[in-house]
Amino acid sequence: MFLAHRTGQPARAVETETDATGAVWLDLVDPTDNERALAARICGESIPQRNDLEEIESSSRLHTEENAVYVSTPLVRRTDTELDSTPIGFVLTRNYLVTIRFSDYNSFNTAARQVSDTTHAISSDEALVVILECIVDRLADVLEQVGLNLNQLSRDVFSGYNPKRDQRVASWQRTIMRRVGHAEDFASLVRDSLLGLDRIAIYISENRKRELAKGLEARLATVNRDVSSLTDFVSQLSGKVEFLLDAALGFISIEQNDSMKVLTVVSFIGVAPTLIAGIYGMNFKNIPELNWAWGYWYSLVLMALSVILPLIWFWKRGWLKWGE
What we know:
single chain; alpha+beta; Beta Polymerase, domain 2; Methane Monooxygenase Hydroxylase, Chain G, domain 1; 7-stranded mixed sheet; 60% helix; 13% strand; transport; Mg/Co-transport_prot_CorA; cell inner membrane
């Protein structure tokens, strides 16, 4: 999809060069080769492909070619069912801002509404700043929700397994571990996005300092400060995720120790009666109690005591908690 954004007007699909007349922002959404070629003819610069935007070295993500600035970064995207990160690219020229993306982002939709609602003409630089501001605002909102989710996860971890709420402790443990892993993945993706945005803002400020208006310089500086504060917040979230992971693993280890303790008790109380039964089950002629009338009941009582007495001893030591 190829959209052209003009100030004071709604977005318009671009099929020919005439459709982009008066536009300041050209938005390519998962573009085809024909749409990339059309955008290149309109702005007079080459349009990078997806594999170019996925390069991780700084020289590929931030560079200048003649009259155009090329910047890119991975941007995290979260839906109700999935979490992914796709690259976005910006080609900044004197007259146009070209964006290349491969997913639908709410931040770009918000930026498009701001451009269409603007009454004064904006430059390509200002269009880029508007998009960066919307992306940072969206990431801040998402991080606030992540923080709330981590608080709930913390309560679930430390509340422990509830048999009335959960069917099996193993299922509860797997659910907790999946939630912790999902939170760490998301924090990592957001960290990469913030790092890329910070580099873009700094690079634009340094390489287009003469072209930027004073107001845009101040707005870019604000973007940098916001990104720095969000990065600190992500670091805090990452530390909390690691703490919750250690806590969850600790509780799982305690649960496993309790299980082993029960197995130890069961195996121990089974040894003594088995030994007694084995002794009196031997086929020797001179067993003292062989001809004793109470020998059978004696052996049964002895085996019962060998089970009951260890259970009482374990219970007094706290190994067995009746009623839990």
